[in-house]
Specification:
Distance between the termini: 26 Å
Number of strands: 10
Number of helices: 2
Order of helices and strands: EHEEEEEEEHEE
Helix content: under 10%
Length: 166
Amino acid sequence: WHAWIDGMTNEASGSRVGYIDAPFAERAVIHGGNQGMPLFYDNTKSPYYSEAERTFDSAQDWTANGGDALCVYFQGVAESEGNSAEGLYLIVKDTSGKSKLVTYPDAAATTLTDWQQWIVPLTEFTSAGVKVTAVKGLVIGVGNRTSPTMGGTGVVYVDDIGYGRQ
């Protein structure tokens, strides 16, 4: 959780990564390993989307060992439990400043209560001129960044982010 910059830190969006009190990472709702990342979102006020960004100290080559896809696992919470239905998106940024936003196909992704494997072919990014051999940052967002409208609040859990072969 500490590697991600959220809206609570930079005041650029309505996001918060992790819990206010220790343990800061999620220990029960996990896909793999010992912890996951709770991403809290509040899209009720401008800019009407919520983002968490991970900037890598050195550029990442996501094509290493034949890598051709980015994979992210996430799980939402049911609307009946207080989560508002929102979409998810990813933004990959390279060292030259180019970026590409990719949206998850289900506009109510935050309410999907089972772990979802989201595989994005690296060609989604290279077709926009993003160098996936020089990745500098990854953004996980909730809402609609390209056409922001007032939304709701809730949490989505993120775990097991990686690149490799489909």
